[in-house]
Specification:
By secondary structure, the protein is mainly beta. It contains one helix and six strands. Strands 1-2-3-4-5-6 form a six-stranded antiparallel beta sheet, with helices on one face. The chain is elongated, with a radius of gyration of 17 Å.
């Protein structure tokens, strides 16, 4: 049995696919809904590699599975508005004087 995480009004759970791979699924959606699979995580030499589904832009390498859940919660949060581009830093010419 897998642990379920309640993140951003979603119920996320890792479903084992093999000894070294898991699907991160949203249990608030029906099992037959293709949007229910959020990501596929595989054990790597150093940490976890993640393939995000549905155009989610997020990091692809994590230290632990817990970090994957936390990032998924941040990206899927209704408050986040989804993934965004970084805010550009305004550049000013050097001060003269």
């Amino acid at each position: 049995m897998s642990a379920m995480f309640n993140v951003s009004d979603r119920f996320l759970v890792f479903v084992p696919v093999s000894a070294d791979a898991w699907q991160l699924c949203d249990r608030s959606l029906p099992d037959d809904d293709p949007r229910a699979v959020i990501a596929i995580a595989t054990r790597a030499v150093f940490g976890v590699d993640v393939i995000w589904r549905h155009g989610i832009r997020a990091p692809r390498r994590f230290d632990r599975l817990d970090d994957v859940v936390r990032t998924a919660g941040d990206v899927l949060s209704p408050r986040s508005g989804g993934p965004r581009r970084p805010v550009p830093i305004p550049h000013r010419p050097p001060a003269r004087g």
